[in-house]
Amino acid sequence: MTKSKKIISIISIIFSISILCFAEGEAKPEEKKEKSPLTIKIDQLEYNDYPNLKAYAVIKNKKGENVTSLAPTLFSFRVDNAVVPVKAKIIPFSMANEPVDYSIMISNNGIMEGEPLDFQKNAIMKFVETMNENDTLSIYSINEEGGVIAEELKKNAFDSQLVNQIEITEAQPRLYDSINNIIKKIKQRPSQRKVMIILSDGRDQNSRFSKNELLDTLSSIGIPVYSIGITVLSSATLSNLDEMSQITNGTYYYSRRLKDIPDNIKLISDSIKQGYILNLKVKKVKADDLSHILELRVDELESEGKGTKAFIALKQPFPKWLKIFLIILGIVLIIAVIILFILYRIIKRRNMGITKRRCKICGNIMKDNWESCPFCKYLPDIKSKKKRS
């Protein structure tokens, strides 16, 4: 074989190998890029006007940062893991200007003396700065029953002296009893968006309510609990706070250092203000007074996630639209009856020959065929009375 033929054969082999490699690369399907996870929490869900629901959702990426400005088309919904028609209006919370009813519970028992209590006070001061004008703040202490420091204060009415005057108490930190009593106060307030924030080391001493009883109560009221763990003696009881937050779809923040407490409470404020309001109307799910699961999914180009929250499909004793319709119908019928009665009286008088003719002397109505007034003739008292008047 000549040298030129060898070269040609080598080139052809290389060319064939390259063709095969290219074909293999083309045939190989493109690997699907894995999306990063989103943490979605529906921390509050109002269902008293079912099938209309109002939900508040907080969405975070894998770094724990709030995800804002998501397009409404990226949201989808399921009920009991089934796709059902849901009419949705999604608004970023920052654009809704909706007031929030905040309730903060702080720990001022003996072991919090000094820096632990001081940093809690600083946290409240920092939190007030982040409030909107229409927001309200209530402050309670964790003691035997849950002490009231201030209730339903707006930002412009807040006096820092209220916080500065908080002192250490010798009362036992009955955490579960205090939370139960404060919940009763929060439930009575008419505000719609409610958030409970607890600053504590998670210790409970001799509460009448057990932890399980408290968790049952928290799971039923629908108010999110955001908690900040403070380590003073031990971190063993901090899991109590974590459980409260998890069962209410709130968030637990651990303060590695005492100076982290004000920063953590600001993170809570940011989560609320950078969340979403979901106004939903569920269709084809019967109002049966039973519990159902609402599932929210967000699927965007590079990330996805889902969150769930239970609600009760309440049977409305009387549909709202039907109430309005019946009220309007009743008013129309009353007006119609009055008009018909007036027309009936007019027709009856005409049939009797009674028109608008009146006696010039006594002023009484006369028939057209009367030549003289019988009232003046037979009832002279009426005639004289008219004259006197």
Averaged pLDDT: 87
Q: Uncertain spans, ≥5 residues at pLDDT below 50?
A: none
Radius of gyration over all CA atoms, rounded: 37 Å
- Share in β-strands: 25-35%
Give the strand order, joined by hyphens, for the main sheet: 8-7-6-9-10-11
Helix content: 25-40%
Assembly category? single chain
- The number of E-state strands comes to 16
Total count of helical runs of at least 4 residues: 11
For the largest beta-sheet, the strand count, sense and barrel status come to: 6 strands, mixed
Q: Ends: how far apart?
A: 149 Å
Order of helices and strands: HEEEEEHEHEEHHEHEHEHEEEHEEHH
Secondary structure category: alpha/beta
What sort of overall outline do the alpha carbons produce when their principal axes are compared? elongated
Can you tell me about this structure?
The radius of gyration is 37 Å and the shape is elongated. The protein is of the alpha/beta class. It contains eleven helices and 16 strands. The termini are far apart. A hairpin with a 5-residue loop joins strand 2 and strand 3. The mean pLDDT is 87.
Which helices and strands, and how do they pair?
Layout: H1 3-27, E1 36-37, E2 39-46, E3 52-60, E4 75-79, E5 86-92, H2 93-96, E6 101-107, H3 115-130, E7 136-142, E8 147-154, H4 160-164, H5 175-188, E9 194-200, H6 211-221, E10 225-230, H7 238-247, E11 252-255, H8 260-273, E12 276-282, E13 291-299, E14 303-312, H9 320-351, E15 354-358, E16 365-367, H10 374-378, H11 380-388
Helix pairs in contact: 3-8, 5-6, 6-7
Q: Can I get a quick summary?
A:
The protein is an alpha/beta fold. The protein is 37% helix and 27% strand.
